[in-house]
Fold each of these.
Amino acid sequence: LLARAFAVLDRLKPEQRIAFALRHVEGMSLEDAAAACRCSLATLKRRLSRAQTRFTTLASQDPSLAERLERGRRGLS
């Protein structure tokens, strides 16, 4: 499952992948992630939004990842 998620991340644009990883893998705040990316908070938010949309779209095409996404939407782990 982890390998599949990383394969999806590899398909994101580099700036989107970095924003996604800093926020969701490293757990950085938006402000700290923006500083790490040397971009404005607004730019970081745009990158993150695009990354999340693309990740969800791509992950939903993989049955195992799609199931985890659905469970997450329902509040299950």
Note: The first helix runs from residue 2 to 10.
Amino acid sequence: MSQIEQVLVVPRSVVEEVGMFHGLVFDVDSYLEKLFAADVPSFMPRPEAEQDPSHKQLIPYVLIKCGDKYLTYVRGKRAGETRLVGNRSIGIGGHINPVDNEVPLFGIDYREIYNNAVQREVDEEINIEGSRSDRIVALLNDDTNEVGAVHLGVVHVLTVDNENVTRNEQMITQLEFKTLEELHAVRDEMETWSQLCLDGLEKLS
């Protein structure tokens, strides 16, 4: 019997405490301070979390930037979130899962678990040659569809010094860097989160 996936969640009420929003919000520190406070984050079985809008699954959404271009790809049939298959994306990321050696019995630092998971998730999905720098630039929320209603995006911009980026997973297809103009030309092919990020890219970069 396979083990049920555990995912990192926060109560929706904590987000509402700071201020519920639609689209992007750039005052990330005031939100992250509350979201990573002691006793706020927890791990929940993913099947339960997917049906529980009283909690938000924290999802890193990492935009890869090189010069004036951003990495984009199309989610193939092996994508973990089947509801997004066939959509174009500009975000790399996924659910935050517990790793045994990162979860001590006492004094869990969920922010550290999150940061480690982001790096691990990026390296699992793509291979980056050269240097990189990562920063959190926004939070992302969209309650207008069933996927967005149970997820909260943490938007990162990861800047790389060259375009030598290749895929490590089969779910990533048509991987390439595009300018803002080229991205806007294919906006209608994008998943909702990518559309929201694209619309705010000038503020994010």
Note: The radius of gyration is 16 Å.
